[in-house]
Design a protein that fits this description.
Length: 214
């Protein structure tokens, strides 16, 4: 075979290989087949989010309370995150009367209630009566005693209904102590604070409740 023929044959072979390689399909990470692997994960996450959105406050709190996989710290944080707007009468209906058990649990673990959850605790008084009210008042009073600054600020920023309810509950629980000593303790704390007008109003209302807890 002549050198020219060898050169032409080699060129044809190279061209044929290039065509074959060019036609071989490659996996494209951006292709629909690649995207389909992500769709089930996205759908599952969306479904979980929708499920939590559809649950009531009472159902969410109950589910966290019953979740044995959570530490006490995590459980208390999750429960208090969802207390605002809860109705304890409805909780009794869906939980076979576990409202007292849940409130008692929060009271026993009150040291774990984060200060940022104080407003939620104040807004979680709907549906309380009798022994439930007393136990919940004790919880709010202990949080007040622990961190007066945060609790008074939270009360000052409440709407009127929740503010009155919160002050009433805290004042009632504090009245079991010597009211004069409680006032003295608050006044000593107040002396080192720069309070807003609304915060001073909260303290005045609290003193009035101490004088007339019922």
């Amino acid at each position: 075979m002549s050198k020219g023929s060898v050169f032409v044959s080699g060129a044809c072979t190279t061209l044929l290989l290039a065509v074959i390689i060019g036609c071989t399909p490659h996996a494209d990470p951006a292709s629909p087949s690649g995207a389909s692997n992500e769709e089930p994960m996205q759908s599952a996450a969306s479904a979980t989010s929708t499920q939590h959105t559809q649950q009531s406050k009472e159902e969410l709190v109950l589910s966290f309370y019953k979740d044995s996989s959570l530490s006490d710290e995590a459980k208390v944080r999750h429960i208090t995150d969802h207390l605002a707007g809860i109705h304890w009468g409805k909780m009794n209906e869906i939980s076979e009367h576990q409202s007292m058990e849940i409130i008692d649990y929060l009271y026993k673990q009150r040291a774990l209630v984060p200060s940022e959850s104080f407003p939620n605790v104040i807004k979680g008084t709907a549906g309380l009566d009798g022994a439930l009210t007393e136990e919940y008042d004790n919880l709010m009073e202990d949080l007040f005693t622990r961190d007066k600054t945060t609790m008074i600020r939270a009360l000052a920023n409440m709407d009127k209904t929740n503010r009155v309810q919160g002050i009433g509950g805290i004042g009632y629980a504090l009245s079991y102590r010597d009211p004069k000593e409680v006032k003295k303790e608050i006044q000593q704390w107040q002396a080192g604070q720069q309070l807003t007008t609304a915060e001073k109003d909260v303290i005045r209302a609290l003193f009035a409740k101490l004088d007339n807890p019922y």
